[in-house]
Specification:
It is a single chain. This protein is α+β, with helices and mostly antiparallel strands and 670 residues long. The protein contains 16 helices and 29 strands. Helix 5 (335-348) packs antiparallel against helix 6 (350-361) and helix 11 runs antiparallel to helix 12 (498-506).
């Protein structure tokens, strides 16, 4: 992706604060007691992400996966924020709860259940718990559950209000009571349009109660109730509802109303149970257990949680660099998915991985159109992709035209899905992605006078390198794409273009003084991230162990430690683990996340100096270090291979559960 410098943070202070708070946490729950330098967590279900806030009874924002509208700044598409429909205004004895009049604040992220709970005391009147979730069982549904424990007899009022982001226009709010026979169904809703009217967005809610239903009132575009509570008797209610857009359904208003009506019939506990069971199913089919290192266990689980939260099987949606936690990089789809996040899903949740590939298959025609626009053949995928599949990179960024290795990253991911699943029918159906990208590279290369081939004038995976020739990763990934396409064609009995073989055998990768060159004419300049090292993993271009080590030792010193993204150390960790050096691998494993952790829960930021969490791409690289490095997992043409694996001194054991389509469990012990 195109990377720009961000404002630096007091990193050491943040890390110390985060570490001290996590001491009170356990392997499934992250616990915070400080609101300083707060960074929220996305309670997400692959369709919508609800970002937590440190202010009681309020969410920070809601991100809608796959929904894009032009931004007002430059007209470039941007992922859309949704109506914040779970916010509450609570008064106790006519005093409103705010962020400034509470005490004993704490917040827990329950990763196993996908629930965030904020707890606090309000003066000497009550203790309050506020839990939010994006329902994993119902993709357009969410709920906030409130528990109030009175310290004395109190009067309360609770009103649900909807906050509308500035990018949503033409807001209409309404309240009506629907009736089926004698059954009454109160529904509070808001309807808006995206900035330029591309989509209609609708959200609806209702109240659920444990006991008798309260009499609801609609006042000043807020829906709520008032009641009296007795000292010491816990009182629980919920706001349940959903959000829909005209991108997914033709009538988002009525469909959004069906979400609270469904919840009204189910009740609080049933909705919670459905949600928890859906998450339990995910964890049962893909989890990582680390014994002897609680900090690593927490961080690995948190990375898995954020990755799983960002995608749904069957949705035909992919994952932006920030998952569903923010609008960073406009929520576009980059190589971040195929190279960094997808390999984890392929090993742990193949059906989630397939959704990311479906997203690319659906946009093949637009990739062919882009190739046509620039005078090439086949399919040239955009560097930044949105719902249209057209190039969505801001025009000032050269990456949009010249960072072309994306057209290899995608077909390599397709081939790897076949090798893991061995599903030949799927391969036949999706073979056009591989063929068309192979044809693009044949039209893109330049033949040299000695019969070799070059790819000239590109931006490398190391994006500090612009207008360069024969970039190592660009050429290496093109070679792998061409080789894989030949293999796929042979399997399927498809016609093989002789040029695929010729170019794959003669495309140049340069060396100097025994080191693989980042690009032709490279003179040792600082690099943004791993480029050459990617030829050893995840590619299979450089396999000689001496060469791998020499390239590792050379380029590990060239990487930008301040502004370089989190992914580089993850790759180095994989390679050192595969060479049987667990302590060096562990050193880079730590470097892949510790400098990038932000309080209070350790959410990933892109680099050591940036503050743009949650960077799901970095989580993917860190998890690859565990699975494909320490875990010894390897993807081959014949399926998943299980090598011995290694453990750093601090770890007593590593168990990876649910690998591949047969959900195999491996365990590595001292």
């Amino acid at each position: 992706m195109n990377f720009t410098k961000k404002v630096s943070l007091p990193i050491l202070l943040s890390t110390v604060m985060y570490s001290s708070q996590l001491k009170k946490s356990d392997e499934w729950n992250l616990f915070a007691t400080s609101r300083d330098h707060y960074n929220g967590v996305a309670m997400a279900n692959g369709q919508l992400g609800i970002v937590t806030d440190d202010t009681p009874l309020r969410t920070k924002e809601i991100i809608l996966n796959g929904v894009y509208e032009a931004s007002p700044e430059n007209g470039i598409s941007r992922i859309v924020k949704g109506i914040e429909f779970l916010n509450l205004r609570i008064k106790i004895n006519h005093q409103e709860i705010t962020g400034n009049n509470i005490s004993d604040w704490s917040q827990t992220i329950a990763m196993k259940e996908g629930i965030s709970t904020t707890s606090f005391s309000f003066k000497d009147l009550a203790d309050v718990n506020y839990s939010i979730l994006a329902n994993r069982a119902n993709p357009y549904s969410a709920m906030a559950v409130v528990e109030i424990i009175p310290k004395k007899d109190i009067d309360i009022s609770a009103f649900n209000y909807m906050s509308i982001p500035n990018e949503l226009k033409n807001v209409k709010k309404n309240y009506r009571v629907l009736k089926d026979n004698e059954y009454l169904m109160p529904v509070f809703g808001a309807v808006t349009h995206t900035l330029n009217g591309k989509y209609k967005v609708a959200a609806s809610t209702t109240f659920l109660f444990d006991g008798p239903k309260e009499q609801l009132q609609y006042i000043n575009e807020e829906l709520g109730f008032s009641t009296k509570l007795k000292k010491g008797i816990k009182y629980r209610f919920a706001i349940a509802g959903g959000i829909c857009t005209s991108k997914e359904v033709s009538d988002p208003v009525n469909e959004s109303e069906r979400q609270p009506i469904f919840a009204l019939q189910e009740g609080i506990d049933s909705m919670l149970d459905r949600h928890k069971k859906a998450w339990a199913s995910i964890w049962n089919s893909g989890d990582i257990e680390i014994e002897g290192d609680l900090d690593a266990q927490q961080r690995v689980r948190f990375a898995l949680y954020n990755l799983y939260s960002s995608v749904r099987p069957g949705s035909r949606l992919s994952i932006p660099p920030m998952g569903l936690s923010a609008q960073g990089y406009n929520g576009h789809i980059f190589w971040d998915t195929e190279l960094w996040m997808y390999p984890v899903l392929l090993a742990m949740q193949p059906e989630m991985a397939k959704s990311c590939l479906d997203y690319r298959t659906d946009r093949l025609d637009k990739a062919k159109q882009k190739a046509y626009i620039y005078g090439y053949k086949g399919a040239m995928y955009p560097w930044e992709s949105d719902d249209t599949g057209e190039e969505a990179t801001p025009t000032w960024a050269l990456t949009g035209i010249f960072e072309q290795h994306i057209s290899s990253d995608i077909p390599i991911a397709f081939w790897n899905y076949y090798t893991v699943t061995q599903n030949r029918n799927w391969l036949k159906e999706n073979y056009p992605v591989m063929k068309e990208t192979a044809d693009f590279w044949i039209s893109r290369v330049t033949k040299n006078s000695d019969g070799s081939f070059s790819i000239n004038n590109v931006v490398g995976a190391d994006e500090y390198a612009q207008h360069i020739d024969d970039n190592a990763f660009t050429n290496g990934s093109a070679i792998e794409t061409l080789r894989n396409t030949v293999k796929a064609a042979e399997l399927l009995g498809e016609q093989i273009n002789p040029s695929w073989k010729e170019v794959s055998e003669k495309l140049l990768i340069h060396h100097e003084n025994g080191v693989t060159q980042n690009y032709k004419g490279y003179k040792g300049q600082p690099i943004k991230q791993a480029d050459v090292n990617l030829l050893s993993y995840p590619l299979h271009i450089i396999t000689d162990q001496k060469q791998i080590r020499k390239d590792l030792e050379y380029y590990s010193k060239k990487m930008d430690k301040n502004d370089g993204p989190a992914m580089g150390p993850g790759i180095l960790s994989v390679l050192y683990a595969r060479m049987g050096d667990p302590e060096k691998a562990y050193e880079y494993f730590l470097k892949s996340y510790i400098p990038n952790s932000r309080p209070p829960f350790g959410v990933f930021s892109e680099s050591a100096k940036s503050n743009n969490p949650y960077f799901t791409t970095g989580a993917g690289a860190m998890l690859q270090a565990v699975i494909y490095g320490f875990g010894g997992v390897e993807i081959t043409d014949h399926g998943i291979k299980y090598n011995k694996g290694v453990l750093p001194k601090k770890w007593k054991s590593l168990k990876i559960k649910g690998i591949g389509t047969d959900e195999k469990t491996i365990e590595i012990k001292k």
